[in-house]
Amino acid sequence: MDTVFVSGPLLGDALEALREAPFEVVLDEGGVGSDAFAASADRVRGIVTLITDRVDAALLARTPRLAIVANVAVGVDNVDLEACRARGIVVTNTPDVLTEATADLAFGLLIDAARRISEGDRLVRAGGWERWTPTFHLGQRVHGMKLGIVGFGRIGKAVARRARGFGMHVGYTQRRREPEALERALGATWVPSLDELCATSDAITIHVPLTPESRHLFDAKRLAAMRPGSILVNTARGAVVDEAALAYALEHGPLAAAGLDVFEREPAVHPALLARENAVLAPHIGSADRETREAMASLAAANVIRVLSGQPPLTPLV
Ligand code: DGY
Questions:
Q1: How far, in Å, from the CA of 84 to the mean position of ligand 1?
Q2: Residue 302 CA, ligand 1 centroid: distance in Å
Q3: Is the CB of 287 under 6 A from ligand 1?
Q4: Of 45, 68, 91, 231, which sits most exposed with the smallest number of CB within 10 A?
Q5: Catalytic residues
Q6: Which DSSP string do the residues of 38-103 spell out, in sequence order?
């Protein structure tokens, strides 16, 4: 019987499906760093990984029988794709099923950052709300904003669909322009230059994967060139933004606020960001609604079952 290592709890029927396949399922929330993984590494055929598991050359050297790595996430920056390709190991992710949940959270962070909801919550709880006045706790108008979307894949487009309902003017940047019919349907305009998008948008929302090219795409220079009073939202990967530089731009300008779900060294957050009232900080919960997490687990399990039974995976990357 093939052995499948599962890193961490999975919602829904995914574990049952793997056991019924039938596989020997070794489950340990300690992930690929656990003793349970070490004990099964030499026989493991499939691994269901989380973003907290690093799949690198060292791990592959310990897993001679490995055939598939099924990441329970759309982002795969925790997996060395080249090393897997070189060994002929299939790598899969969980696209589509988490698109709407992540776009919901990006929009939530945008509204929270613009209207200072979490900051207001802290103030009320601390007894700092004295009375209603016309000038108290002002935020920025969300409806009709100019929204810049960086990365116009599935999630970027889902954000654009939400933006339509808020009467926003949407610009997007990515290497290639989308077909005109799609742009019209989404009410989105292609802005080839990221710098131009940043300089002209009231808010920027990031939806690019973390790659060597996108690491610190938002560095001190780019952040300094953003539109004064603008908002930055990041639900992609923390390292796309230089966290220390972001904290500086939130304190000294030009940024008015940020909404962040992802951080460079999770679960740690840069102390200068923790100190910023104008940063809304979420604990990497973009895909964290029950239906989405069940669908992610079920897709990852289906990929393992298919590959180990000789069928093509549903969502292959390698
Ligand atoms: C992903 O899918 O990449 C998220 O970060 C976790 O759901």
A1: 20
A2: 18
A3: yes
A4: 45
A5: 237, 266, 284
A6: HHHTTTEEEEEE-TTS-B-HHHHHT-TT--EEEESSS--TTB-HHHHHHHT-EEE---STTHHHHH
Does 104 lie in the same domain as 89?
Answer: no
Q: Is the pLDDT of residue 8 over 90?
A: no
The answer to whether residues 80 and 196 belong to one domain is no
Is residue 315 in a domain? no
Average pLDDT, the chain: 98
With a 6 Å cutoff on the Cβ, whether 50 touches ligand 1 is no
* Domain span at 60: 3-95+290-308
At 275, which CATH number? 3.40.50.720
Under DSSP, the state recorded for 218 is B
Average pLDDT over residues 182-208: 98
- Average pLDDT (37-46) is 98
Measured from the CB, is residue 73 less than 6 Å from ligand 1?
yes
Cβ neighbour number for residue 280 with a 10 Å cutoff: 24
Report which residue type is found at 109: L
User: The pTM is what?
Assistant: 0.97
The arithmetic mean of pLDDT across residues 142-169, rounded, is: 98
d(C-alpha 52, C-alpha 66), whole Å: 19
- Choosing from 71, 207, 284, 287 the residue with most ligand 1 atoms within 8 A of its CB, the one to mutate for a pocket test is 287
Query: Is 197 contained in some domain?
Result: yes
* 170 CB within 6 A, ligand 1: no
Residue minimizing CA distance to atom 2 of ligand 1? 73
Would you call 171 helix, strand, or coil by DSSP? strand
Domain count, the chain: 2
78 and 91 in a single domain? The answer is: yes
Judge whether residue 135 has pLDDT over 90: yes
Categorize the per-residue pLDDT at 306 as very low, low, confident or very high, splitting at 50, 70 and 90.
very high
* 79 in the same domain as 129: no
